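Re: [ENG-882] Designed sequences occasionally contain unexpected residues at chain ends

Forwarding the minimal case from QA. Structure tokens:
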């Protein structure tokens, strides 16, 4: 078969059975779907249910319990062996259902991040999921788009692509539509576009030739195989915590065993006590609970218009202390309007009733790629220029039809201007618009004129306006299509200036106040004039007391890294910056130890988005390149959504921290109680089976409810900046030791008193129930670090997670089979009431300490 790149476009379109103007028909689409399937790369298959079950079996607790069951059966304790096996099955089932739910949620979230593609079908341009693109489709591509399939260029305009992902070539590759030699290597196939690459500049129509695993990147995927999904940093830290607990448990087990030998206990009792102690020490469900909690947080963020692409990003998001954000569309409405216009002859005029020469209108309309059709499309600034002319009754459609554009030199971040060549019959008119400081240097003006213009710019910029300058020149009619912009952007005649405004979003100001109050610094980065940037920043309330004034990109370039590291700490507004400057700002902040969120929407923002701790792309106005490079996508392009996402991230970090506090304090209390009863020479307080029961009913339900605790409205204002490295700060450790120690003292004291006043079975029954109560009620004080239980909104899930284990505990004590199995007797109503009041002592003291600490 002739390679796609060596045929002419006409031959290839005929071979593929499609047309450039109409694309695929309904019949062709249905046929191609059956033949080719989905445009996806093969991923690692989802974990089967059996593998999930086996994963639950592969943990230290199951090994320990299974060993205990085997030993109990070998020694003739068949009832104990059966009970232990039932506990194992229950734990496996709970872990299986939790992990199944987490995996299903993660898979659903991945589906939300599938890129879109614009294709021509049935004669119309349609937006479809990249998975539904088919061979024969006509892709419509612009700068910033991701190429979703291998395709042959059939029509292009100044097209170049970034193919580093495929070829390693760091510079953009210029593309053509003409056929090339069939033996051309992939790096030189300049008429082909490849899946996974990005459009750097220009636009194109391209015929899809291969999809999915048949693409060039699909071939690479076949060779490499699918990479195994790694654990999040948070999960790895939790595993380290579990290993440390296991080590501590090992030391305590050795101590308990030694004391048991000295006291003359039987080998079976010593062994079973040691195994029970080991089980009490291992928070075996913690990694699964954390994954589920993170997934729930990501789903909540999605509902709040923040789409998190990677679940591990939630951990970093909660630690954010710098938010570097674009201005237009994020902090402001993104709806520009022309407020004033200026010319040397007429000065500054209100845009609503200005009257200027037709040349100004021509520049506004022709040096413009926007359209007012179907509600408007294109750049917000260019739309505002067209809307101004439309409001004055100018027939801009006729003006466009009568003035044919011969060539365009597109806007870029370095030149900060755009030029077009217009056919004027016997001559060509070059129209240019751009930032005044770059355009005025190309205009023929005397010193007096320059002073007048600069004064006008300063006055308009001081009002927070975005200022655009317009100029023109005329030349003889020659072929200019291959000319570099430097050859035509010169010797301009100044036309005038348009001043535009983009007001802040109402909710942005309150969100910025919220950030400041919670210790998060907001930095505005814009390409606007410094005076404009300062005016908008002041209106938003961004600058902080004793902070520097605006830093420009030019000033930033002059600073060394060390000096920049100092300046970024006290700079909150950057003006006239390029995407490369964003990268420098991020690197300086990160070098100072900050966790930085950075917004972006363009192709050139991708490096900064990748470098940032959290890259945030715009879902509505942003390019696909920016979205793919980011960790989070805003579906509403709103700064307030970033703040909500940071709040969710910080809240989930706090939830997980408090869940660990709950599990460690109760598990440590269980270990100390066992050690204490043995060390005091008392009958072993709890049988191994009782410990397993406590571990089952008090660890699972409450910890899951704590990890999924809803976010309060003022959480960002009342919470502390979390450390991304460790949960174990001084406050955490003090509360851990205090609560575990207090629970141990209360438990041993009640047990000691019960032994003095009642028989051993009664004493153990009382101690058994009391420890269940102590563990469950401990969870109430773990719902918040700052607020007491009574200050928090009612949480039915948490209440249910406490009531259900209490019901199970009563069922156990009042069922004859369980009474024999656990060697317990039923407790009276009076005993239960007394135990209830005793068990709320620790939680009451912790809540009182919160109030005291807050006042202090």
């Amino acid at each position: 078969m002739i390679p796609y790149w060596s045929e002419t476009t006409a031959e290839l379109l005929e071979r593929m059975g499609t047309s450039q103007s109409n694309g695929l028909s309904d019949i062709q689409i249905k046929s191609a779907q059956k033949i080719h399937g989905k445009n996806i790369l093969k991923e690692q298959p989802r974990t089967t249910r059996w593998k999930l079950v086996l994963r639950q079996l592969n943990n230290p607790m199951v090994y320990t319990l299974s060993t205990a069951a085997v030993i109990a059966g070998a020694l003739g304790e068949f009832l104990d062996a059966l009970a232990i096996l039932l506990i194992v099955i229950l734990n496996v089932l709970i872990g299986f259902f939790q992990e199944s739910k987490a995996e299903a949620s993660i898979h659903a979230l991945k589906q939300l991040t599938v890129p879109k593609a614009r294709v021509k079908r049935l004669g119309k341009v349609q937006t479809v999921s990249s998975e539904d693109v088919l061979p024969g489709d006509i892709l419509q591509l612009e700068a910033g788009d991701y190429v979703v399939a291998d395709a042959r260029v059939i029509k292009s305009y100044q097209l170049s692509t970034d193919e580093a992902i495929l070829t390693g070539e760091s510079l953009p590759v210029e593309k053509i539509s003409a056929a090339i030699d069939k033996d051309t290597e992939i790096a030189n196939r300049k008429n082909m576009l490849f899946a996974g690459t990005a459009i750097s500049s220009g636009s194109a129509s391209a015929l899809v030739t291969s999809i999915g695993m048949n693409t060039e990147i699909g071939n690479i995927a076949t060779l490499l195989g699918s990479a195994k999904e790694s654990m999040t940093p948070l999960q790895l830290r939790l595993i380290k915590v579990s290993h440390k607990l296991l080590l501590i448990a090992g030391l305590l087990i050795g101590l308990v065993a030694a004391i048991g030998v000295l006291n003359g206990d039987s080998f079976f009792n010593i062994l079973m006590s040691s195994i029970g102690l080991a089980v009490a020490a291992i928070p075996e469900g913690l990694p699964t609970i954390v994954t589920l909690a993170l997934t729930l947080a990501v789903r909540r963020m999605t509902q709040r218009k923040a789409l998190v692409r990677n679940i591990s990003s939630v951990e970093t998001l909660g630690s954010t202390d710098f938010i570097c954000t674009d201005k237009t569309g994020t902090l402001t409405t993104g709806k520009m309007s022309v407020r004033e216009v200026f010319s040397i002859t007429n000065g500054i005029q209100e845009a609503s009733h200005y009257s200027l020469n037709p040349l100004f209108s021509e520049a506004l309309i022709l040096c413009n790629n926007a359209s007012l059709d179907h509600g408007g499309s294109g750049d917000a600034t260019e739309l505002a220029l067209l809307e101004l002319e439309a409001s004055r009754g100018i027939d801009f459609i006729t003006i466009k039809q009568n003035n044919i554009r011969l060539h365009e030199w597109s806007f870029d971040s370095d030149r900060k201007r755009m030029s077009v060549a217009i056919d004027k019959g016997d001559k060509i008119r070059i129209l240019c618009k751009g930032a005044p400081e770059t355009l005025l240097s190309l205009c023929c003006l005397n010193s007096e004129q320059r002073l007048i213009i600069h004064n006008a710019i300063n006055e308009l910029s001081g009002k927070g306006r975005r200022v655009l300058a317009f100029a023109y020149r005329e030349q003889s009619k020659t072929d200019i299509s291959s000319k570099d912009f430097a050859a035509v952007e010169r010797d301009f005649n100044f036309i005038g200036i348009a001043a535009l405004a983009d007001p802040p979003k109402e909710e942005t100001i309150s969100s910025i106040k919220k950030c400041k109050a919670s210790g998060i610094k907001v930095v505005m980065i814009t390409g606007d004039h410094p005076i404009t940037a300062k005016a908008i920043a002041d209106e938003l309330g961004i600058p902080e007391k004793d902070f520097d004034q605006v830093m420009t990109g030019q000033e930033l370039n002059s600073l060394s890294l060390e000096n920049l590291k100092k300046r970024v700490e006290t700079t909150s507004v950057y003006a006239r910056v390029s995407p490369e400057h964003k990268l420098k700002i991020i690197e300086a902040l990160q070098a100072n130890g900050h966790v930085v969120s950075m917004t972006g929407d363009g192709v050139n923002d991708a490096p900064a988005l990748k470098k940032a701790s959290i890259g945030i792309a715009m879902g509505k106005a942003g390019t696909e390149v920016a979205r793919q490079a980011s960790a989070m996508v805003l579906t509403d392009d709103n700064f307030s959504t970033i703040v909500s996402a940071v709040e969710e991230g910080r809240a989930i970090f706090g939830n997980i921290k408090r869940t660990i506090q709950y599990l460690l304090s109760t598990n440590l209390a269980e270990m100390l109680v066992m050690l204490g009863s043995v060390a005091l020479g008392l009958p072993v307080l709890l049988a191994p089976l009782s410990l397993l029961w406590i571990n089952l009913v008090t660890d699972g339900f409450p910890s899951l409810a704590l990890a999924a605790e809803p976010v309060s409205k003022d959480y960002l204002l009342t919470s502390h900046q979390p450390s991304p490295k460790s949960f174990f700060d001084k406050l955490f450790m003090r509360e851990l030791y205090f609560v575990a120690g207090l629970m141990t003292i209360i438990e041993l004291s009640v047990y000691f008193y019960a032994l003095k006043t009642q028989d051993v079975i009664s004493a153990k029954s009382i101690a058994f129930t009391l420890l269940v109560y102590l563990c469950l009620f401990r969870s109430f004080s773990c719902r918040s670090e700052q607020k007491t239980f009574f200050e928090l909104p009612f949480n039915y899930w948490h209440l249910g997670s406490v009531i259900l284990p209490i019901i199970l505990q009563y069922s156990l004590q009042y069922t004859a089979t369980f009474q024999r199995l656990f060697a317990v007797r039923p407790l009276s109503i009076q005993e239960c009431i007394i135990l209830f009041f005793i068990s709320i002592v620790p939680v009451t003291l912790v809540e009182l300490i919160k109030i005291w600490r807050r006042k202090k």
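QA comment: On inspection the terminal residues look reasonable. The two ends are 81 Å apart (CA to CA). Proposing we downgrade this to a documentation issue.
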